From TrEMBL:
Record-linked InterPro entries: AB_hydrolase_fold (IPR029058), Esterase-like (IPR000801), Mycobacterial_A85_antigen (IPR050583)
GO molecular function, one term: acyltransferase activity, transferring groups other than amino-acyl groups
Pfam families on file: Esterase
Alphabetical keyword list: Signal
Domain of life: Bacteria
Stated name of the protein: Esterase
Length: 370
């Protein structure tokens, strides 16, 4: 087949697939679970398609950034009533997604849905129901608490914020002390991400209720990532955040919560750039943490761990649409070198929150086990 004919054929095939997909959309759309109270749109159907309806009578063009294949998202169609409507050209991955509207070239949030901090700004959020969503569902089980704390930071000259999850029973069992996981967000996010987008507290509540994990505290703080422009990750300096975390936050948490304040009961993990921070800090401060977790955040090698105190566990995960072989091979190499290492690959997900929700669900049960 000649090149020109091949290109025409490919374009026709893609167009045909898109039309076929749109013609087979099941009309059982329901409001997204993340909608503002009383708002009907955006909607999601049983296949994972998302549908939008935006009132912009003076606009000529509205596009939703949520889309497939890097094709610029979903272009909405204007009706005579001034409303723009449209449906994604195919089903979305299960789980949480950020998105925004582009109206006449300007970026805006969808007034129909709640906002979540991501991409260094508050973005609209939509939830595509997952087949395994039960593990992060709000259930009738004992619940822990997520509280905001403000702690002094001499190194930055500010009062900084963190969120602390304490497990069910923490307030009643006044004599019991708990291990701590320091859990970091990704680039563009902040200390609200693991509770709001990740449902870390609900994942823990459900695991504890099922007897699948030891109760422990989770501390989530801002990783000082967002001053860095995307594409310049190599310019990031870990030392300022390392000082805040190790020299200021950890002592504050140990002084104000009932923690088991030693290395053997302390873990650090993070998603994406938070994994990169975890990697750097645990290598720089091997006497602070005993459990390391990288969630879509790179790998460890035996060489870089050599001649350092040995961690009790190294957990590495990613989505099946990321680089699963790299994760699996890294863990094989670590095991061969004598390290206790675990890999996890989230099926049919990429660099997104369902990958990290599932990763936390797999990580928690293997933390702080003798």
């Amino acid at each position: 087949m000649k090149l020109k004919q091949a290109i025409i054929f490919s374009v026709a095939l893609l167009a045909g697939q898109s039309i076929f997909a749109q013609n087979n959309v099941v009309e059982d759309f329901k409001p997204s679970t993340l909608n503002q109270p009383g708002q009907v749109y955006p909607q999601v159907n049983s296949q994972g398609y998302a549908r939008f309806k935006i009132n912009a009578p003076e606009a000529d063009s509205v596009r939703v950034s949520l889309g497939l294949g890097g094709r610029g998202g979903t272009l909405l169609t204007k009706g005579t009533d001034g409303f723009f409507t449209g449906t994604t050209e195919g089903p979305m991955d299960e789980g949480f997604h950020y998105y925004h509207l582009t109206v006449e070239g300007g970026i805006f949030n969808d007034p129909g849905t709640l906002n979540y901090y991501g991409s260094t700004r508050w973005e609209s959020g939509i939830e595509i129901p997952a087949h395994d969503q039960d593990f992060y569902a709000l259930k009738d089980v004992p619940h822990g608490n997520v509280q905001q704390i403000l702690f002094p930071s001499k190194s930055t000259g500010t009062q900084r914020r963190a969120f602390v999850y304490t497990p069910p029973g923490y307030e009643k069992n006044k004599s019991e002390k708990y291990p701590v996981l320091y859990l970091q967000h990704g680039w563009g996010e902040d200390e609200t991400a693991w509770s709001n987008q990740g449902h870390a507290n609900l994942i823990m509540d459900n695991l504890i209720a099922d007897g699948k994990t030891k109760p422990f505290i989770i501390v989530m703080t801002y990783g000082m990532t967002n001053e860095l422009k995307w594409g310049h990750m190599k310019d990031f300096k870990i030392e300022p955040f390392q000082t805040v975390l190790v020299d200021e936050l950890i002592p504050y948490v140990d002084a104000h919560f009932r923690t088991l304040a030693d290395k053997s009961h302390r873990a650090m993990g993070g998603l994406s750039m938070g994994g990169m921070e975890t990697h750097l800090i645990t290598l720089n401060k091997p006497d602070v943490f005993s459990y390391y977790a990288l969630l879509s955040g790179g790998i460890y090698t035996p060489d870089e761990l050599k001649n350092k105190s040995k961690p009790k566990l190294i957990f590495i995960s990613c989505g099946s649409r990321e680089r699963p072989e790299g994760v699996k091979n890294a863990v094989i190499a670590l095991k061969d070198a004598g390290y206790n290492a675990v890999s996890y690959v989230s099926e049919n997900t990429a660099h997104e929150f369902l990958t990290w929700r599932r990763s936390l669900h797999e990580l928690a049960p293997v933390l702080f086990r003798n």
